[in-house]
Amino acid sequence: xxxxxYLPWNSSKTRLKExxxxxxxxxxxxxxxxxxxxSRRELIKWGLFTAAGALAPIKGLNPFISSAYAxxxxxxxxxxxxxxxxxxxxxxxxEVLPRNPISSLNPAPMAQSNQTLxxxxxxxxxxxxxxxxxxxxxxxxxxxxxxxxxxxxMEVTQEGAxxxxxxxxxxxxxxxxxxxxxxxxxxxxxxxxxxxVLGRYGEPILFRxxxxxxxxxxxxxxFGCHTISxxxxxxxxxxxxxxxxxxxxxxxxxxxxxxxxILAGHDTINADATDPMAGSPDDSGGYTKIPGDWHETMSSHxxxxxxxxxxxxxxxxxxxxxxxxxxxxxRGNETIRDGVNLGLPSGSEKSWxxxxxxxxxxxxxxAWDSNGQLFFDIFQLDxxxxxxxxxxACYKPFFQVEARKYRFRILNCSVSRFxxxxxxxxxxxxxxxxxxNLLPHPVVLRExxxxxxxxxxxxxxxxxxxxxxxxxxxxxxxxxxxxRGPKNDLSLAEALSGNSADPCVGKFLEFQIVPCTKPxxxxxxxxxIPNPDxxxxxxxxxxxxxxxxxxxxxxxxxxxxxxGGQGFAADFNQVSAAxxxxxxxxxxxxxxxxxxDHPIHIHFEESLLLARNxxxxxxxxxxxxxxDVYRLHPGGAVTISIQFREFAxxxxxxxxxxxxxxxxxxIRWELDRGPxxxxxxxxxxxxxxxxxxxxxPTAY
Amino acid sequence: xxxxxSMSIALARVVVLAVLTxxxxxxxxxxxxxxxxxANYFPNVPLVTQDGKTVHFYADLLxxxxxxxxxxxxxxxxxxxxxxxxxxQVQRLLGDRVGRDVFxxxxxxxxxxxxxxxxxEYADKFHVKPGWLFLTGEQSDIEVVRxxxxxxxRPGENGLTGHSTSVTLGNEETGQWMQDSAxxxxxYMAVMIGDWLSSWGHQSPAPSxxxxxxxxxxxxxxxxxTRCAACxxxxxxxxxxxxxxxxxxxxxxxxLARFIATPDKMVADGDPVATSLYAKYKQVxxxxxxxxxxxxxxxxxxxxxxxxxTRTSARSAGQRLPEN
Lengths: 700, 324
Description:
The complex is a heterodimer of chains A (about 700) and B (about 325). Chain A has about 700 residues and is mainly beta.
């Protein structure tokens, strides 16, 4: 096993320079060699080449043996320009997207895709194509559009980085770093801060997403694809609104996503909307009762690109945003006491959706090149790691907190990196949610569990134990040496020592304590949301999915094998499972590949963890709620109970290490009313075509 | 490290830097498309084609082209024949574009043992058409290529049997690169390389919403399409392997079931029919597809049903049927 060591972050400038030189030399020697401009014999003579034909491991000159000098986790020179910038800028809060009336949308949204034609740019083949990229016809019409008509419109673009006109915020990871160019980063509205949708149960949203990315595929700054598909992770919506990986849309088009925001069990549980626990907050401090199972209430979502083959690049490039969902139980108001609202830290000015003490943290590792522009290595197929920690697109910021309780909705939105979070003084945090779902009971932890890509941990931190003027830091304990999975979880002392070779270990967010402006009336009740009772629902089918090494001698690391069949890589034309509407199944997800870890995401409904490695007692308290991403651990297995209700269509299940996902660790499953598989959409700028699906024998 | 050797390394560094400085003025190979994935990234190592011609990886094989690249070794009895057969299907689907703007490269990962002549013989077995090169070369050069494409063998993996079945799809000119499994649906791969990576300037024919249909979940049909169709037809003549029209009538049922399940073992054990087939079809070993008994039974049922169907439609069209 080769050792791959990072350059310690506190290295001297000389050493950093030396490393960069070594890296350049390595590349240039390999290139010079490959162009026949240096002979192998000369290199052997110089001692840089072994007779066996490999460059000797000297100061990073060997392309096969990683060296102590050159291989930072990105596989490129360290991201420059950061010395002295830690904790010198305030953290940006997410920018709340405006909530507009549906009448603001022109053209008006339609149940079926709007196939009105427009001219297509010659770079995309010319001629004419539909204005909406959603596949046409009844199979792709918004399900329940008439019954659950949209009430709120949100309209965004995807476009290249630019200064945010709201507040004149330049697109920079830090005020002292260069601005990102329009080809380096592509975000919602082309700006930072990252965006936040505030939604309520019972209030359907029409999310109109315009693609304003360059028509020229070459204009991508080295990575990213200009076709996109937006996945509301983990919305209980129809498949036409799920951001299906093969239902992408083109520059010049829009896609209307209809997010009905209903409770799962809408049709069968509390269908007459009499349960006082199931409700949609109103604007005057009360709430309206809604159908469905309130035990399925979700709170912290996010949405991001799901383009086939390019998800990692596009999400890394900025196609990621957060979505807080409010309910009678989780109201976003800490003072209302009506026997239903939990009163979690948030604020009290508005009747719902207060963000004063309810903070979204999008944590991600990034890297940039010598010009300070975002960098990604598209050939790093183990998984891509950055060497710079960012929170809400800010390099290691500080955040002023009052000496009181705060709720943090922490999202790991990196490409391949796992985190493990703690406070620098080792004091406790209260985990209240996992994957955006409030737990049955809060769990007090001094260190959170490892947090895989796309997992969301909601925690409450009580800063009242500190005095104004004090500081405390959020620390990452999880050390990587490559993108296959975590290498080590360090102790807090080790992580703080600065000895880790991984530059993303250690402090990354500074909390500066300031006095309270008013008394803290928020609370964290001992019971939050009990789990839905599935004990009376029969299990109609058990399935096994094995992620990883597939068939004996076939070592393709990222495949999904269904029910012991052949391992297949991603082919979204292939249906691997087809559960029946209104049933419950038990799925076991197995990590078949040694040494790798895979955070597996199943779209559509939240699941309950029944067992880890076959035993219910292996499920830790903070995973005893509902989840939608499951870290398998190397060699591990997770057994879950999942239900299929209300909506139909083609959904997915995949590894959320998005490099693995793009490199084919993705399968399609389909939910419908009978044993047929839907034709697979094949988008083109001139309109969506279709192809017959392949169905695995295990599907039904 | 001794003082002497560290000095010689320091000296070597100076020499190398001097060489590189002189190179930098002569460096005319920068990518002109602004993509970082051009001449500055890909090695221009020499490789040798199945016809014995020396070509350079970047300048001759990648520059300005759309490419499909995988790594094989001809003695592979497992996934490589299936990969090659599937890519041959992709080549047929892309038609005369292969060799014009799309190019296929299968690069040997066993170059010290594989000669151009062996690669040529291998290509012929799979009815490979022009535009698809089988390449060998120096081991170290090929390792650089694998490394750069993210396909290097991992530490601890067997270099040959442990190789990845990934296929790299790329358009050097636009800087777009994707990964897929060579074992996936060939029609889908043909769309990815032929349409997506050519910026939709070309579009494969596909049905509209009204023309497309849902599909029955027939196990045998699915297995035949995904496992067999790369090498076999039913009534349309020999491919890499024999035409399977009527196969269940002229072969003993148990023999057929055993052969479908474990063709590798049957050949190794010297079964007379299996070995004669192996010889007749140019020593292409049918891979062990790891099918269970229900899969084998479903396939035989499917072969029967398709034979009957082909017979009926051929009779009504007045065609002569293949005799067995």
